[in-house]
Amino acid sequence: MPTLRTEIEINAPRSLIWEALMRKDEWRRWNTFLFDGDPALAIHQGREIFLSIRRLEDDESTDFEPLITLVQPHVCLRWVAKMPGFKSEHSFEIQDLSPTRTLYTHQERFRGTLSNIFLPFIRQDEKQGMRRMARQLKRYVEHREYRQYRRDQRARRDR
Predict the structure, then answer these.
(1) In angstroms, how far is CA 106 from the centroid of its own chain?
(2) Which residues contact 29 (CB under 8 A, 6 or more apart)?
(3) Strand ranges (DSSP E) for the chain?
(4) Measuring CA to CA, which residue among 43, 39, 51 is closest to residue 81?
């Protein structure tokens, strides 16, 4: 089964990365690959959500409605999008490397008779989008972590 995968180390605790992934209504602030199509639909296992994908930053977006198949808090988020002959499973996994460093992994698996037809056309752009999202998540979370650190330092100093 064809699989695309990207991973990146993020200098922030796993809880901040999980929070950024779960707040899909804020994805547009930091994420140019996947973004929310309906903020009213929260991420819950067994629920369909409405998303858009933009493989290349200057491309048109494509809407899709994946089914959330797994929400394992602070560990894994997974969804499946289907159309006749084609199935795509996205997974986002986060793993502690230390209390303040996390490994973020984004993987997409393709199945179905049409996957061999579609994949050659989207593989490179999809992989590029996944990498872009990982870098943008890193920048967003690390910047938030730094701001929080500075606030905490000021609060301690002002006591």
Answers:
(1) 7
(2) 140
(3) 3-10, 34-36, 51-53, 62-64, 67-72, 76-83, 86-98, 101-111
(4) 51
Specify the pLDDT at position 112.
87
Please give the single-letter amino acid code of residue 122: I
At 141 the pLDDT is 93
46: left (phi over 0), alpha (psi -120 to 50) or beta: left
Please provide the CATH number assigned to the domain covering 3-158.
3.30.530.20
Residue 9's Cβ-side half-sphere holds a number of Cα atoms within 13 Å equal to 7
Start-to-end CA distance of the chain, whole Å, equals 57
Whether the full predicted model's pTM is greater than 0.85, yes or no, is yes
Query: Do 113 and 105 touch, CB atoms closer than 8 A?
Result: no
Handedness of CA 32, 130, 81, 23 (dihedral sign): negative
Please give the backbone phi and psi of residue 6, each rounded to the nearest 5 degrees, phi first: -140, 150
pLDDT digits (tens, 9 = 90+) for 88-118: 999 999 999 999 999 999 999 988 888 877 7
Distances (CA, A) of 115 to 24, 127, 133: 27, 15, 23
